[in-house]
Design goal:
71 residues; mainly beta; 0% helix
Length: 71
């Protein structure tokens, strides 16, 4: 079952983006819906400073979960 990406979801990249200096697994936050299956994702450091913000397709993202799934 595929999880739909929602606003403010924490996501990880599923591919390298060397032209943007982003690696596989880099973690960001969905901050805007741009089009069907296209999201603006913000990447910040541990001090909250943004180092990248770009549009990504849903297939480039993995939604991270911090709580167990309930049946």
């Amino acid at each position: 079952m595929k999880n739909k990406v929602k606003l403010l979801d924490v996501v990880a990249l599923t591919q390298e983006l060397p032209e943007k200096d982003l690696r596989l697994g880099q973690v960001g936050t969905v901050v805007e819906f741009l089009a069907p299956d296209v999201y603006e994702v913000e990447f910040t450091d541990n001090d909250g400073r943004t180092y990248a913000e770009l549009a990504l397709r849903e297939e480039q993202l993995l939604v991270l979960h911090y709580e167990p799934a309930y049946a």
